[in-house]
Design goal:
This protein is an alpha/beta fold and about 200 residues long. The protein has six helices and ten strands; from the N terminus they run βββαββαββββαβααα.
Amino acid sequence: MNVRDCFLDDENVFQVGGTTIGAMIASAGKRRLWEPRNDGRVDVAVIHYISAVNVAPNDPYNISRIFKIFCDYAVSSHYLISRDGEIFRLVPEECKAWHAGASIMPEPDNRNGVNEFSIGIELVATDVSGFTAAQYDSLNHICAGIEARYGANNMKYVGHDQIAGERAVALGLRKEPKTDPGPLFDWDRFTERLRRRRDFA
């Protein structure tokens, strides 16, 4: 399964609406939409969804528009998975992407600032679309690779809603709760397939 490099930096020549990702990032006075990790440790993967539904209701899965959202809001994720399962690598894993915002791990972990030790994975979806079989396939492919690099026993998997949801609001970490990937994401399907991959590795 191929992974397409499309790094969110000022050298990216991917065309978005008559300009390039690199030009949009440079015009905002940035060189890249990530930063170094403090200690390099990674032991969490955060599952998100993203779409262009708010700016293009009739074309919510448009990849170019989604890239523009990353640039406009100066946010990022390590990976983006399209509806047909195409994988884009947006940020090097050894660097810190800006995907979780103000966040706290579930109890008993309770670490703050989840960006520091996590890998963010965005699935192209809306709150009502659900996720495609191809996306689950690609997500499992990415996570199998992550486990090979960082150790299967070390990795934890959480949704954005689990680290930046109502609990984070109640603790005063953020004003609005995140709800992705939401109830339509099939955690059992994801974790069972990942377990089977480990068994046959």
